[in-house]
């Protein structure tokens, strides 16, 4: 059996809000799988079902072949979960927290020290500090250590890098790669598109639905039209004017430039520049660029919204 | 079993780390016992009165002197003007106006019946009742002392005092010592506060700060978790009770007629019952603030209707029926029975069974609800 996670047609509603609409996907053994989507997409709900904290309204979810509803007792010991909100004891020290979670899983820090070593080592100088007094990045590392201490086969991380500085985020993903090489399957969610490249496969999620599942490269390349990057000092005006253009398909501000897609198969860039300069944007530069995940995601989201 | 041990370790670590709470937990029983026992008393300390003596005889002066001589009444105002005295009463400067009519001495000496008037400010009903009963007994004593003289002097036959004399003897608390009566009740309140508030609050806290989410994905069973919350505060409650009992015994000289072991067993059972109620509160609330408020509300009702301050027997029948469902009332009753009357297992066993029944009910409902709320 190669699939660690199998989800088929899972739905979940909170009163009249449909949080998950017949979601299906699989995560293979040893994969680093990313769930990407904005707040309210349903990522946390899905994770809570997988971690046996919620029961789905319909559909089936399995972890290592075991049903999350029927066999929740068997699933819990092989699962490591790091909730989106820091959920360790703030009034216990770093070491007390990790030892407590080790003990309730029937293991010890020493037994699995090798597994958590790369992460826990960074915390050891502060091991007597109360968890509540740690910085955001340190808290995340502690939470990851605690989720790992019982050597789980599947690690579920709910937005592990939200609210963490850029350096810590990068470090965090490096640690996840290390863990992946140790054979742990990882399912992580993030609202940051730029973290998608870190995953083996990603699922783009929006409004309780999965819009696309693929490798990050494939997702990036699946943008349906030719994409141009347009730069100008008058960025705001540029966006306004471009949106009025007769062939416009999408305009997205992106860093210093604006990503532009056209309805035509082979757009005339000179025509675009001429149009811009007649409307007051004279310094525009245009060049063809490769699409990234965010472009695809924005496109898929717009399609989804126009369907709905 | 090992899991429970680890959970208990963690709970105690957290409790003993809480620098704000820990001293309170152990200082509270002492302060509560000292303050409440001395302050909450029904004995009349001092009542002030205004005197309108129209008679101005040696007998009338003797009567008013007798009021003052008891030490309970102090003469604040003397006047011949009823309105003025009533103004004083209205203004709250005096608690009572004592009026001795004209010809009081003459009529009394002749063996006629006379009357004096006590106008009592009854805003505070309890105090008014006490002033009345103290005042009546002073007048009765006065009458007894003088009637013989009157009989000798008077040609008429003076009103006879009844030949049957009542000599009340108070059992179990012969001196009607208020502290003896209060302390067992206050010990109950103390134990109830710890039992009801702390366990429940602690569970809600795990929900509020989200740690329950992390616990729920571990193999910890709900029963482990609940045990981990009940046991530490049970121990603290029992320690506090022992401190309180020691203070009652050696500080207040409360008689310990019954068996200490029985007291401890009953208290142990009671604590578990009240903790079950705390557990139930935690399942219907999601923040510590809500839990605190509900626990407080329940506690106030339980205490006021528990026979601590006002006897249950003086409540209306419907309220008396309600107290049957009040664990605090049962426990106060048992404490007083065992400590002051020396009741043994035979006398209180039915009440212990009622408590156990309540505990079973609370746990049943709480655990049932708890399973539904958290994962």
Automatic annotation (TrEMBL), chain A:
Gene3D superfamilies: P-loop containing nucleotide triphosphate hydrolases. SUPFAM superfamilies: P-loop containing nucleoside triphosphate hydrolases. Residues 5-232 form the ABC transporter domain. Keywords: ATP-binding, Nucleotide-binding. It holds the Pfam family ABC_tran. One of its GO terms (molecular function) is ATP binding. It comes from the Bacteria. This is ABC transporter ATP-binding protein. It comes from Rhodohalobacter sulfatireducens.
UniProtKB/TrEMBL annotation, chain B:
This is ABC transporter permease. Keywords: Cell membrane, Membrane, Transmembrane, Transmembrane helix, Transport. Residues 128-373 form the ABC transmembrane type-2 domain. The chain crosses the membrane at residues 20-42, 178-198, 230-250, 256-281, 293-312, 348-367. The keyword Transmembrane helix applies. Pfam families: ABC2_membrane_3. It is a multi-pass membrane protein.
